[in-house]
Amino acid sequence: MDLTGKTALITGSGRGIGKAIAQRLSDAGAKIVINDVSDASAATAAEIKAAGKQSLFVKGNVSSSEDVNRMVETIIASFGRLDILVNNAGITRDQLTLRMTDEDWNAVIDVNLKGVFLCTRAALKYMMKQRWGRIINISSISGIIGNPGQVNYCAAKAGIIGITRTVAKEMASRQITVNAICPGFIQTDMTQKLSDKVKEEYSQHIPVGYFGTPQDVAEAVAFFASEEARYITGQFLCVDGGMISVW
Ligand SMILES: NC(=O)c1ccc[n+]([C@@H]2O[C@H](COP(=O)([O-])OP(=O)(O)OC[C@H]3O[C@@H](n4cnc5c(N)ncnc54)[C@H](O)[C@@H]3O)[C@@H](O)[C@H]2O)c1
To answer: C or N terminus of the chain, fewer CB within 10 Å?
Structure first.
């Protein structure tokens, strides 16, 4: 899978799954744009540069259309094109439905769902002119099977599947593919904060018997980003150690 000459934007890539995706696409030859909300995430772009590869950090909140449009304009000014968009930025604000506040609902929908729409719309403008593009949305198996205490998160992740299928159809004739990945339980800061009891419960539902790593997700993203995956669009792929098949 050779991505030489391509430019890839990975949202929320200062750490965790996004960082692993950035490093994997960089290894495949792509110029990498790291986006995140914190200045500290510039370190990820610096690491890629230190390895002799091209990388740029653009700070921005994916739920702000102003930030997103500025981010994409900066990328075009720096690299001249945008070929691959990985919508990875995501947050959790867990609570049972009866107790969930409007604020927690809105925060998760804004970042996890509206953010995907805003970044997709901004990137498509350039992908359409190029008549080539790859959009890979990081959903979750929670969006398919549901998860108690995550009504906001599951709604957003299910919504991402709807965005994926719709934009795939809209863009199919332009060599722009749109696919989603649904990770299961992946070891990152997001899952680190769960209690040992919850982690133990999850582990009993993973047929392969262990938690996934950010690298496991990154390998699937690299495939969807490649020319080799040109005939695959509107799909979702579960990277979950078999979890969804037994839940
Ligand atoms: N870890 C898992 O088990 C798991 C499972 C399924 C899906 N996912 C999804 O994978 C993605 C990455 O998750 P992770 O585990 O690496 O999480 P993480 O919390 O480790 O990293 C998320 C990153 O997104 C950034 N971010 C948050 N809000 C942002 C915003 N508004 N704009 C830009 N960046 C923002 C954070 O600063 C952080 O660097 C998320 O979409 C998450 O929902 C994770």
So the answer is: C
